[in-house]
Design goal:
Four copies of one chain form a homotetramer.
Chain A lengths: L5 E2 L7 H15 L4 H5 L9 H20 L10 H4 L24 H21 L4 H30 L27 E4 L2 E5 L9 E2 L6 E5 L2 E4 L5 H9 L11 H10 L7 E2 L11 E4 L2 E4 L11 H10 L7 H8 L34 E7 L25 E4 L16 E3 L8 E2 L3 E3 L1
Parallel strand pairs in A: 10-13
Antiparallel strand pairs in A: 1-4, 2-6, 3-5, 6-14, 7-8, 8-9, 10-11, 11-12
């Protein structure tokens, strides 16, 4: 029976690993002005500055505080300001008001980071063999990587609210200028089902969050999965066919949501270019507003939109077990967020076999986010990490173009409410056979 | 591959069955004044008069309209007024405004029922061997029984909103005057798990809704189920222990819900008797406000409350597959709503073995309401019956004291959002072994 | 300096006056079924049954309780159930939940009325010379008349929410079948202004509410008032001219309100007859849906609509002082609610001079509802009658077709928020000269 | 009959006046970081950067566009981004989303200002004798001064939302360290009333907004006004006496507002110092959180709070006419926002006579914001400046410590909804005599 927060890698993270992950957050925020880094576009999203501070708070609270000799907080109030949702730690600044924290400034938050990093390096030097401490450090690094992804998607949402459609960087998504060719043909990959194992094996030398544990058996029916993600061109055909105006395609709750908000297309799709009379589909990207590329995956879909599309297409969303069994046989390759040339946008499907399993778009599954059989949460505040969110959310798999390389794996379970649209979330179809 | 709305009984329903079910709805509404039958206490609940009319509309729309010679509606506007959620049929009166329909009067709705019943009897006489028509009739009868249960729970909610705590009937719940003895000891019944089958077998001569189909394999882990439902006395101990004030027991979303609404106890619990200084727990029942009986099951719990209690008790909610496997071995007995002496309240657990599986309280499972592998909806408006609600709801099993005898079975899947409190919903604990 | 609730008539009300006013309320509710009398269509409106009970509660609480020997309440809980807004009396049933009070039944409320009336007649017989008590009785009778008007307008709103457009009675508004002739020509009546007196003179032998006191001087500018109310035909021209689509006519807050609610016409106007393809304007009345009569006054306008119309017409709303000075010279005649043939709808303007000053439609003034100089509220709960509402409401003058004859006068100040549409509220134009 | 937007000064504003007012806005924003200048704490408040841009937009749109040769906008999108509420100009960026405009940056907005200022100086040089143009320029300068005040109050609100209670500057309010002495005794100044004139005389060589026009007669009753504003010490006594827990003091709507929001004190009052156990009243100021000084005026009161205090104190709020008649006899002196040593907080009442009439706190009047008799709005978009807000707001008089010297006068009419608390709004009592 598991009773731990996460499973650790072997060997454990080294001081240089800590430095590299921490540095990456700062790099991702580098293109942002202090203003960009401070604003909050909706309660679900956080300012970049807050991400930089909260990830630092995590190390200060969960690693330095219990282990540092003569611990003193960098700033007493930061304990409250940068607590996200840990009731066990105490009071929290209201989530929807993170954008009002113009102080501390971005410069002060970077100083906070530098201070904690220096103390962490001293601590790591002194505790090189302390497995329990290193497990917390590793958790903190994976936590930081999760916030790196959120930093990217939250900035994208913020910039999308600005009628100037400002760009985060100048690297255009692939294929947007190369014409409007369709994606490669979609094929189906069959599985016979039967009793399979999913979940993380634990003690395997590969890190996992607690929600991936324990490995356990499930029974799968025969089914088939699509060879690639649904493309922009295919999704545009759904719209063209009146997809957003026919309740027969939609879950009842999804239709009510769509109707109440008057939605007619994905969140970042626009009928016209900036200031122009062009009524062709455009897509807001981190490089600004660009013509929609048919071959690229449709992203930023809610669960409701994903499900409606699948129903319209005569298919369904996969279960998380179906997805995981297929993914376990695929290499961990994709268009991850790292590297100086990352586009921060999914790429086109290429090659034969199962394409785009990792590092293009999170893939909605029809599986409600629930504890695996035998799941246990850790003691204390850090046990609030995952378990308390296991209701009314749906599992997404595979990582996206905003996910750091090395962060994701076949057993990784991401989760969002059915309404969430601001993540790089797409659709891989499944069907019964 | 299934592609049907439901599975039918063999032999099919007879005209007398139709008459009996239809008559039962009128009997359930008999204690109500026209005023009682017209009011709507919240958008989730409907007026009794609306239930009487809508169930009639179902037969008129789905059976008479396609089959009756020279069909003419009883009243053209009723097509809209009494359509619940079938987009395929057309416009619908807004759900939250059902209580404003003071016209047609209760007497006119009863006349509508009599008219449709007479036409239905003529139709049944003419189509005695028409299996497809009889399948729709049977669906309509089970639909009517579902609304009989809602009629009871909706009236209970309405009366609970009245500070006079008026009674629906005068039959007191069992044990409320017999002192405050606890429930019989709770024991655990173990299952070894493995590959099992759940779901309805189809073509078995027993009716099933489409959401119970198809029968399929699942893999269960070893586990144990409690021998009875959580009792009022046990739930009161949870409250006494600060259960409603400690976020550690709650799902994050449940805690936010509890906090926003300032909830401190189940919906029908009150600290004091009507107008008195007595601060012992009392419970609003269909017989009015009565002292809380410790031995009776705790009911009217939301999923959040059920889950929080289970966590506090060191247990968890069962999955629907775990529940169904246990239930399949139990007799279909319980304190159902039928019969002249029905208390419309759950009874005490008695005897050895698994008590209270059926006909006391719906039992929350941790299973999100989702399609079974291979699930298909029927063509047309009647296909909207179940499938479009398969998101953000949780499965409840077992039927309650407001469920008609013969309506429920081991494979039956009820479902409500995690916030729902006005059904007779309780908790059977489960745990890993 | 006044310090009283109201000014009384001379001679004071007699037992027969009490009986007549009380009987009138019952007559107004007579066409309603128990269902009609129980439902509440919006928080601003109350069920007819509640009006019948609350007016009785007023006499029981403010007259019987302090004066009756061995007072015992008819029902202890009614003190809370039927308290409208008197904090000084204690707890109140939530306003928005009045429609959930299916118990007490309409029959029980009528029994409550009979009981209180009998006790009141005994009390009146014993206290024939008690001026203070009779002043409270008179206040209660005028209070009852106010609720008679609300009973009519609240029922109209309730029935309007029913797609069947049911009728309260069968007496058609004047002129709706007589063709679509326009109203008589509108002329302007000039006043030179200067120092004038408004407000009730007190001790004049004519009843007044406290908010009409004291009589005081104001300075009027030269101005002119229209000879009649704005007609349906004129208001339809405003709509035709794009009045609901051009923000230039509207107060900013009114435009936001209109836009948020998507309003395109007055609340009871419909483009088509019931179930028909006719797209001519129809109006819902207490006799059901009828073709809009051009000559009749436009009613059920909000302050925002009234003000927008006036601006579009190159005029403005009158101040309450301008209105009162003109009204003081007119006879107290109109289409009041009393009498067996009352249409419960305004009539056409007839004759020369200032038409429709009283008893057709309440006339919005541009005057915010505020205390007159020297205004004082009475001590105790009854002092909450008027004063505490003197913010963010606008004064209406003149009484309507739902006002009892004898209830209104030139100094009478009615008041509603700028959004209110369910009263018989219309427009008399004014302009500077 | 007036038909103009405003009345102009004689001589008209000179290029140096333009430069001075424009420069002052930049100076007020100088203590702010780019982050501080970008955030928006509530829909009613705007970011400092937005104020800097919108005031520039005003000159560009209303002066440069119609008068500049070969006009080209600085940035085409700014026309929408920085339009506040002028429907006549076209589309507007949603008010509640001004804080999401991280682009243009603060530096770019300052460049926008410099560009427009340079073009304005060229235009002013060319049009030195163009009275109509100079009238628009003068309007723009007074408009800019209004936004200077809002810039200060909006920043105060933003900083108050930060648990760090950051300071805008380091100049402490007067008297906060000097102990807790009370304000000087309050005396009453009587007026006999009668016919008086209020409003701006027009053509007097003194600027006025259109809403101050025309000068007209009103009749005043005898009354008395308090010699100074209500002090913090007096307001604390109201709280101590249960003022926030007794509905008898409150307007009904005010009580509902207070209750819904759970308010127990003025918006910037806190029971304890930052992070301390001290439970004495403290007040958030632009210099941070400081001990409450009894002698200083109570500020940041809503109309509801002001009215409740007055009722509790046995007095009332003045009418705007009463206030104006008294103010017309007082010198235009006060603690205005200008000057290097301005505290941005009201000062103590000093000297005999009527103290604190100008430049300490806006003083709520009981007068609803309404057009003066004969009021006319200007043609075109600039006519939307004042008139369309004349509903459901209350007039405040006198200017505050955030008002620029020279901006305010005895006839000046400010206006806010009854709920507004973030302005420097206080109370001067009045009473009937």
């Amino acid at each position: 029976m598991m009773n731990t927060l996460a499973t650790t890698t072997n060997p454990p993270p080294q001081p240089a690993d800590y430095a590299a992950v921490r540095q990456r957050s700062v790099e991702l925020a580098a293109p942002l002005s202090a203003e960009d880094a401070c604003a909050q576009s909706m309660p679900d999203a956080s300012p970049a500055k807050w991400h930089l501070a909260h990830t630092t708070w995590f190390f200060e609270t969960f690693v330095l505080e219990p282990h540092e000799l003569a611990f003193a907080p960098f700033h007493a109030e930061f304990r409250v300001l940068f607590n996200s949702y840990y009731n066990g730690v105490g009071a929290k600044h209201p989530r929807a008001q993170r954008g009002l924290l113009t102080r501390p400034s971005l410069a002060e938050v970077l100083a906070y980071r530098a201070n904690v990093d220096e103390r962490m390096q001293r601590l790591l030097a002194r505790h090189a063999g302390n497995a329990k401490l290193l497990a917390l450090v590793e958790l903190g690094l994976h936590h930081e990587q999760q916030h790196q992804e959120l930093l990217v998607t939250d900035i994208k949402h913020l910039l999308s609210c600005n009628p100037l459609f400002p760009a985060y960087h100048t690297r255009q998504p692939a294929d947007t200028t190369a014409g409007s060719g369709p994606a490669q043909p979609l094929t189906w990959h069959r599985s016979d089902g039967g009793v399979v194992e999913i979940g993380h094996a634990g003690n395997s030398g590969v890190f996992a969050f607690d929600n991936e544990l324990p490995r356990h058996r499930v029974y799968l029916q025969p089914h088939a999965l699509a060879s690639r993600l649904v493309s922009n061109g295919e999704y545009a055909a759904f719209i063209e066919d009146g997809g957003y105006r026919n309740p027969a395609h939609w879950l009842a709750e999804g239709w009510d949501w769509r109707t109440a908000q008057g939605l007619e297309q994905p969140i970042y799709w626009h009928r016209a270019g900036q200031g122009g009379g062009d009524d062709a589909w455009h897509e807001f990207t981190l490089a600004g507003l660009v013509p929609l590329a048919s071959a690229l995956p449709a992203v930023h879909l809610s669960y409701y939109e994903a499900d409606a599309y699948a129903r319209w297409a005569g298919a369904r969303l996969p279960t998380e077990a179906e997805w995981e069994c297929a993914a376990a046989r695929q290499p961990l390759q994709g268009h991850f967020v790292d590297g100086p040339d990352a586009l921060l946008h999914p790429g086109v499907a290429e090659g034969g076999g199962m394409a785009q399993m990792f590092g293009d778009a999170w893939q909605w599954t029809q599986s409600s986010y629930a504890p695996y059989p035998g799941f246990r949460t850790a003691e204390g505040a850090v046990g609030e990490y995952n378990g308390k969110f296991m209701v009314n959310q749906y599992v997404l798999r595979g990582g996206s173009c905003a996910t750091p390389a090395g962060h994701v794996r076949a057993t990784y379970r991401n989760f969002f409410p059915a309404t969430a649209r601001w993540q790089f979330s797409g659709v891989r179809l499944a069907r019964d056979v």
